[in-house]
Here is the input.
Amino acid sequence: MNLKSFAQLVYDQTILIPRGKVSTYLEIAKALDSPHSARAVGNALNKNPYAPQVPCHRVIKSNGEIGGFANGPKNKIAILKREGVEIINNKIDLKKYLYECKAKR
DNA sequence: CATATGACACTAT
DNA sequence: AATAGTGCCATAT
Here is the structure.
């Protein structure tokens, strides 16, 4: 088994997301070779013991919606805007801001 | 080991 | 397009 817990891998991947970009739970799950673990990814970020070190606010749903956040999605939107990400109708243009972690390992 | 929970995703209606 | 139902995986109890 992995030396790190699934959650640990999620944090490590989330930290790699550059400022001004976002990623999705599904994309992260794929990066971890578990394309069906989107839910588990969300669980890991929910615990997020590394916050705010881990930019969990840069992780959104695969359909471009913000999803849920501990302090409420409203706070998250404000942060993303400050990062340079444009939020439209509480949604993000994945075509423009989705960060693809191709450079995995 | 079984059940319940959760920051999701997909398909059907 | 919007809503509901189902599937999926990792943790907690």
Observations:
- The longest helix of chain A spans residues 73-83.
